[in-house]
Amino acid sequence: DIQMTQSPSTLSASVGDRVTITCRASQSIRRWLAWYQQKPGKAPNLLIYESSSLESGVPSRFSGSGSGTEFTLTISSLQPDDSATYYCQQYDTTSPTFGRGTKVEIK
Amino acid sequence: EVQLVESGGGLVQPGESLKLSCVASGFPFSSYSMNWVRQAPGKGLEWVSYISSGSSTIYYADSVEGRFTISRDNAKNSLYLQMNSLRAEDTAVYYCARDGGYSGYVYNSWGQGTLVTVSS
Question: Does A89 contact B at CB distance below 8 Å?
Answer without folding.
Answer: yes
